[in-house]
Amino acid sequence: MKIKVQTKNGEFECDSEQGEILLYAALRHGLNLPYECATGTCGTCRARVRDGDINHQWVDAPGLSFVNQEKNELLLCRSTAKGDCTLRVPAKVSEDPHDKTRPGYRKGEIKAFRELTHDVVSFDVVIDAPMSFDAGQFAVLDAADVTGGRAYSMVNYAAAETLNFVVKRKPDGKFSDWLFDNDVVGMGVDVFGPLGKATFHAHEKKNILCIAGGSGIAGMVSIIARGCDESHFSEHKGHVFFGVRGARDVFFLDEFSSYVEAYPENLDVTVALSDEDVPADLKNRYPMIKFETGFVHAVTSEKMADKYDNILAYVAGPPPMVDGALRMLVLEARLHGTDIRYDKFG
Amino acid sequence: MSWKKVCESSQVLENSLQKFAIDGVDIIIANYGDGFRAFPPFCPHMEEPLVSSGMMMAGILTCSKHLWQWDLRSGEILGETEKELLFYDLKREGEDIIVNFELELSYDYGDDEEDAMDDDDFFNAD
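Output (structure tokens, whole complex):
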């Protein structure tokens, strides 16, 4: 079926399969419509139906608070078309001429499932065709047993046939319940990606600051790994601040230790424990990692003072943590909006 | 013309903003150091309440939702910000901050009765 999209800079057209999410149909045809979470919470992909019939996938999506349903508005990431339709998007839209960087669908199979902590797991999704993606990007995973896709950042990067993810169990999280309560190895998931603009490229020649809470560290591992692989940290600084509740919540510290070992002059990794003092055995186990007590944005503020020269900051984590970090970066560090990268999920 | 006193300059500290009401309509008064600005209480992007999401630093207003920024000294948009802020005319008489309040300023979020999403000139609007 044909989807017409009227935008501030003209009309575009793309095809959509029966039952396909409208946002994904547009993105895979190279039409760069505005989006952030791609999964129903942020409200950024708001559009208005001018003509045609629409199915709404998730009638309670939090992002619907940003749309006026009486005016026939919808979230493109949570709607499908019943037939040809015409939509209006209140933004200027660009077209991506490069097939290779456009997001697309893959069939995936879950492999290498392992527990990282009591409530965080890591797993691989082996996909049927390689995906080329940047450090810091995410993909939407859709399992047959769970309604609606979920967005997770890749821990790895580059052109890969295996995507590595980290997921934290959420109270009442249907997808994480499915992951934790079933033997999911060998199960199929549909993958749409890559998505997200909080990406890292060594050629930008910036010092890097990563502030992450919990499983938000996934994309940061990808950024730091790429920075190491491309010798970015032989000439530029890298500062990672990783916030968790307590000692039992830490993970990826072996990986971070090896990165710091490779660039001890320029790369530092600090773990902030919000709920407890730092146990001595944790410090002893990871001598390359620094440990502090406090909220991660407060620890970052204290340790980063006067180190904001030529900084590009990446932020990921639970919404209150992201908000605290953004305030700190704008009000204290005085970074410009263009030097802060994050994808809004809250 | 209808100039109305909103507050006194000492009520809004340097590099901060506060919400006030004139005739039952909320407006923000921001102190950018060298002066003051008056504007509607919501971000023009997605209607975030600026009294909580607005951050003031060195004369620059930042909305924490998507980091849209405006330089309040010049009134210009910064970075990847896509919409201008609408300002009320403002003057100071002694300690008093006085705003020309004739018509409530508001942004098009696509939910007004006659909004740009339905207009024929949709494609030419900002």
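The first strand of chain A starts at residue 2 and ends at 7.
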